[in-house]
Every structure is written in structure tokens, then in C-alpha cells.
């Protein structure tokens, strides 16, 4: 709720003597109203009639009466001339579009094995020996191996290439989203009127001289409210909201529909042109490069035999939660505000 404290303070300052604040409205006696008139007697005679409408005072627990307008926020009017002070602004229908940005996944990748191991047999079935740093070979470069790596008596064991998993991310919207917080809102107005112009206990209040406004009384705070017979129409407005809508985090499923296999080649020459032997390692099985007895490889390199890591299915990005309206105020009105617009 937003009360215009400044406006009320100015009204209160204007009421130096004999002025009563009742539900946001200021009441002046005819003598006070006409004190500065050019013809005080004529002013007093004229002001003896209620310029608005005579209504019963607000019951206990209510403020007002006041004129209330409810409608589309973009159509909010100025307060009427008879009730120029805004005493309440509240809201009815939130208008906050919410959608989770789409989740996406990076492309998976076929990853090279950690290196080459020398096996103590001709067919990779003996005990494994030390791991060799073979990054140049595995990356596709033609390399002249050292004697420790290339041999005509020991095989080379190539580990299985693996599929590097996908990384989740959020796909930003193509254009910025414009957010309007409220679709419908309400505004209550009051003004300065004269005492002693209605038969007690009724009091004089501004009339509904502007379309869309209705005479209402207001109950602040939560709890059920029973509207009196003079004001049978119930209208609830809110101070604000608590937006608890969220999106589930983005994630990626495992790579699917792909395969990775790496071919290790040895050559008779130092330029990787005369192939000697070949061994293939897949993601399921390691590869074995068997030697040719009596012929030591002069160069080696590895090439992708199959480099198709597949794709990952994005997950998440699902909306959950809700908007909770806060700070309710109940207005009881003679007719529904805005219905005559």
C-alpha cells in the first residue's frame, strides 16, 4: 500500500483549528471555510448544503469513505477535483511474463587416451610396462620414435579413446524481455468537505463525479471482512507480491549415438609414407600395435578412425513456483469500481 503521507500532512497543516481527520478526509466547518471569503455571510449560507453526498460514517475497523477506481494500470486516472488527494494505491492482477531460457549442451568430443604403453609380448598379452608420453603421435603428428618406444620385439598398447561429456549452458533470449509488473491496479482518492451539512450521523463526502470511481470504505490487513449493507461490493487489492518462480538448473544427458576409435600406425620410413603396421583402439576396447620382427619402425602417428562423439540431450530449464500477492486491503464499495467505464 502506498499512502500519500505528504498530501495528508499538507491537509493536516491547513487545518489549524477545528479540523478532523477521518479516514483520510478533512472536514471543515462553514465558519472555517468562509473565514477568508469576501462575503463571509453569503459564503456560510451557500456552504450549508453538502456539495457531495451524505453517507453513513465508516464502521469500526474501516477507513474512509473514499472514491476508489479499479482498472488497467495503463488507464489509471487522476483523482477527481472533488477528491484530489491520493490516499491509497494497490494492485490486483500481476502481469509478469515468466519463461525459462532454453537449456543447451556443448558438443561432446572424442578425447585422446593418456598415452602409449609398451607390452612385454608381441601381441599385447604380457605385462604392461611404463607409460610413454606420446602426445605428438596421438595428435596426428608424424614422429620419429625413440628406441624405447619403437621396437621390433615388443608391442604397443593404445588405451581406449573416451567421449568428453557435454557442458550445459543457458541460451539467452534473442531480445530483452520487457516486464510490466501489474495489469490491473486500484487507486483511492479523498478530499476536503464541510461538516454540519448532513443530518447526523451521516457525513458529507465527495460524489462520484468521474467515471470509474465508486464510493468505498477500506479495511487494511489480512483476515476475512464482512461488508456492511451500505457498501456490499467486496474488492481486494494488494500492496505488492513475492515472485517465487524459478527454473530448474540446466544439465546434459550422456553422449548418445556416437563412436570414437583411434588408429595407431607405424611406418618403414621417417616420413610416415610406407605403412608397416596398424592397430585400432575404440571406446570399448584398447588397441594393439604388433611389431614386425626384424623391422623397427622409423616413424609413427595416430589418426582418428571414427570421430563421431554423438550428441547430448539437454535437461532442465523447467519453470516451477508461483507468485504470491502480499499486503491485502479489502474495500467495501457501493458499486463495483470501474464497471461504468
Can you characterise this structure?
- Residues 1-25 have low confidence and may be disordered.
- The chain has two domains: 5-98 and 177-245 and 322-333, no CATH class; 114-158 and 259-308.
- The two termini are 24 Å apart.
- It has helices at 5-14, 30-33, 40-46, 135-138; strands at 20-22, 25-28, 53-55, 63-72, 85-94, 103-105, 109-111, 116-119, 128-132, 156-158, 162-164, 168-170, 182-190, 192-194, 203-205, 213-220, 233-243, 246-247, 251-252, 259-267, 275-282, 287-289, 299-308, 314-315, 319-320, 323-333.
- Strand 1 and strand 2 form a beta hairpin.
- The chain has four helices and 26 strands.
- By secondary structure, the chain is mainly beta.
- The radius of gyration is 42 Å and the shape is rod-shaped.
Percentage of residues in DSSP E strands: 35-45%
User: Major β-sheet, in short?
Assistant: 6 strands, antiparallel
Instruction: Report the end-to-end length measured between terminal Cα atoms.
Output: 24 Å
Low-pLDDT residue spans: 1-25
Number of helices: 4
- Tell me the radius of gyration: 42 Å
Q: Any key phrases for this structure?
A:
341 residues; mainly beta; 2 domains; four-stranded antiparallel β-sheet; 4 helices; 7% helix
Amino acid at each position: 500500500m502506498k499512502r500519500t503521507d505528504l498530501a495528508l500532512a499538507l491537509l493536516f497543516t491547513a487545518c489549524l483549528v477545528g479540523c478532523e481527520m477521518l479516514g483520510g478526509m478533512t472536514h471543515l466547518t462553514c465558519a472555517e471555510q468562509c473565514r477568508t471569503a469576501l462575503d463571509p455571510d453569503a459564503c456560510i449560507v451557500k456552504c450549508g448544503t453538502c456539495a457531495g453526498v451524505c453517507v453513513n460514517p465508516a464502521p469500526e475497523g474501516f477507513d474512509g469513505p473514499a472514491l476508489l477506481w479499479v482498472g488497467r494500470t495503463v488507464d489509471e486516472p487522476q483523482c477527481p477535483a472533488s477528491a484530489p488527494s491520493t490516499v491509497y494505491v494497490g494492485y490486483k492482477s500481476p502481469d509478469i511474463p515468466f519463461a525459462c531460457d532454453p537449456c543447451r549442451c556443448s558438443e561432446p568430443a572424442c578425447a585422446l587416451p593418456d598415452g602409449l604403453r609398451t607390452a612385454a609380448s608381441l601381441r599385447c598379452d604380457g605385462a604392461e610396462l611404463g607409460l610413454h608420453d606420446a602426445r605428438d603421435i596421438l595428435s596426428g603428428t608424424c614422429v620419429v620414435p625413440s628406441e624405447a618406444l619403437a621396437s621390433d620385439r615388443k608391442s604397443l598398447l593404445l588405451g581406449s579413446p573416451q567421449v568428453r561429456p557435454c557442458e550445459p549452458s543457458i541460451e539467452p533470449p534473442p531480445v530483452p524481455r520487457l516486464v510490466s509488473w501489474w495489469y490491473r491496479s486500484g487507486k483511492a482518492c479523498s478530499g476536503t468537505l464541510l461538516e454540519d451539512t448532513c443530518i447526523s450521523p451521516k457525513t458529507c463526502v465527495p460524489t462520484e463525479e468521474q467515471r470509474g470511481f465508486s464510493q468505498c470504505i477500506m479495511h487494511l490487513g489480512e483476515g476475512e471482512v464482512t461488508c456492511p449493507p451500505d457498501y456490499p461490493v467486496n474488492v481486494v487489492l494488494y500492496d505488492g507480491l513475492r515472485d517465487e518462480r524459478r527454473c530448474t538448473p540446466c544439465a546434459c544427458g550422456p553422449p548418445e549415438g556416437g563412436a570414437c576409435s583411434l588408429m595407431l600406425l607405424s611406418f618403414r620410413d621417417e616420413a610416415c609414407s610406407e605403412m608397416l603396421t596398424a592397430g585400432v583402439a575404440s571406446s570399448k576396447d584398447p588397441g594393439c600395435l604388433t611389431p614386425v620382427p626384424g623391422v623397427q619402425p622409423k616413424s609413427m602417428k595416430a589418426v582418428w578412425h571414427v570421430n563421431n562423439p554423438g550428441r547430448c540431450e539437454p535437461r532442465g530449464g523447467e519453470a516451477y513456483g508461483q507468485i504470491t500477492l502480499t499486503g491485502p486491503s479489502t474495500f467495501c464499495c457501493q458499486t463495483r469500481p470501474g464497471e461504468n467505464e
